[in-house]
Specification:
By secondary structure, the protein is an all-alpha fold. The protein has 13 helices and no strands. Helix 9 packs parallel to helix 11 and helix 11 packs antiparallel against helix 12. The longest helix is centred in the last third of the chain and has 55 residues. The chain is elongated, with a radius of gyration of 26 Å. The model has no long low-confidence stretch (mean pLDDT 91).
Length: 285
């Protein structure tokens, strides 16, 4: 929703300012300039990006308009899921969660928190970590380093869409100049025409530069920055899971491990100690 409001503000202020100066809107409508700039931008994007990055960019842009970020409810559910896993291990042993780890989509424990089931990275982090502990004798500090490497890979993967979008944003002013140069070339071919005709041709050519710069700094560049924020929020969410898991595996009681996780949640989205206590009470029925 904020992204849509931002787009409306950019359009309203730029076009509004132009109209206040008695500008002619019809002059800004130059289909040939749009075709050159956006066609070349899309082509360059496809040349520079593997298919998996193209799909990731489409998903990331759709998230911008959905406005979905992690909030207090998401973090509380993550901690409640971990608490349920930790208590089951304490009461029934590590082997008791084998079926949950092997098939989280069919696990009654995981199914209570559908938002986490849709987060592939979160599910992989939880299940792979528990599976590693079940099948190996890995030391806690080695497990810590292993998860850090995993998070580094996730972050690099999540940043790929942002890098691709930023590449397109950086190219747009240059493509606007390309469109302008082509417009000037066409104008040179009409050099014998009267000044009114030449003025319109040069104006149309300059619109290409305007479009390239506006779309770079007003739309595509901010989208790239938004996707960078998405990657950062995802890593923060996974870090909360990591801290709670390592605390429990290191010997902390379930409730203490959950508190370890709660303390690293960003302040704006962090549930209070009392809120977690209440959620734990409700989860026990």
């Amino acid at each position: 929703m904020l992204a849509i409001i931002g787009i409306v503000i950019v359009f309203t202020t730029v076009i509004g300012g132009y109209l206040l100066e008695h500008g002619n809107l019809a002059v800004l409508f130059q289909p040939a300039e749009f075709l050159i700039i956006f066609g070349a931008a899309i082509g360059g994007f496809l040349i520079s990006s593997p298919s998996k990055v193209v799909k990731a960019v489409i998903k990331s842009i759709s998230r911008i308009f959905r406005g979905k970020t992690f909030d207090k409810k998401d973090y509380t559910e993550a901690l409640m899921l971990l608490n349920g896993i930790f208590y089951k291990i304490r009461q029934q042993g590590l082997v008791s969660i084998e079926s949950d780890v092997d098939s989280p989509q069919e696990s009654p424990l995981f199914s209570q928190y559908p938002s986490i089931l849709n987060n592939t990275h979160a599910i992989d982090l939880i299940t792979d970590t528990l599976r590693t502990v079940m099948t190996t004798t890995i030391a806690p500090h080695e497990l810590d380093a292993l998860i850090d490497h995993e998070l580094d890979v996730y972050y690099e993967e999540m940043m790929q869409p942002a890098k691709s979008v930023n590449f397109v944003a950086d190219a747009l002013p240059g493509l606007g100049i390309v469109a302008a140069v082509l417009g000037v070339v066409l104008t040179m071919g009409k050099i014998s025409e009267p000044p009114e005709v030449l003025g319109k041709c040069i104006g149309a050519a300059l619109v290409g530069t305007f479009i390239g710069v506006l779309t770079c700094y007003g739309f595509v560049g901010p989208m790239g920055k938004n996707i960078e924020h998405q990657a950062g929020e995802n890593i923060l969410y996974l870090t909360v899971l990591k801290v709670a898991l390592l605390a429990f595996i290191g010997g902390s009681a379930p409730k203490v491990a959950v508190e370890f996780g709660r303390r690293v949640i960003p302040a704006n989205d962090r549930p209070s100690f009392i809120e977690i206590e209440e959620a734990l009470r409700q989860s026990k029925g």
